[in-house]
């Protein structure tokens, strides 16, 4: 298994798409800096309205953007080998295909988890450094208070990546898998929120975007319907996302030709 992990790590860091996706990290920091600077400048220029200035926490927002990028990397981890034909060589060297999927999943999870935590904690320190002593609503809590939410939001980035890997194995097409991901992110939440009564709350609660806040037991900050999951239930749902994605990937790579 060590050899599989080493080969998957070499493949991941030797393709250009990995660095293009990871370039999202400085881009996210740039966006956080821009939003923070805008709020700080407004706070400085309007002393009489400081109590009404609200800047939403960055945790969900930054993990969502990072999750999109790492999910695409998960798709490319699988589809790029099919498009180049390298997957046949991989399966010749490692005939047990589920071991290949396991190796890809482990390497991808580590990269996505580290990237997610780096984005979350980096955004926190960047925004706090730029705000200084300003007390803007949504950004007054300490590192200790914010750490659980940042850890949960950074962790869900790894779940996004595995979801992308599963779709890549299922569809074998980067365009098809990325289209499915975009549909999940943009269309499914709209449909969920339009469902009647309690169905809207339950469907929204199961979305990856809303799992971190339920995992920490914090209050939702936004316009979404009331969330339903307890902390243990949110953790179970997060694990189910990964289990289903990897289960589907393993099933299809074993049953189809390379």
From TrEMBL:
Keywords: Membrane, Transmembrane, Transmembrane helix
Membrane-spanning segments: 20-43, 55-78, 105-127, 147-167, 174-192, 233-253
Organism: Amycolatopsis magusensis
Top-level taxon: Bacteria
Protein name: ABC-2 family transporter protein
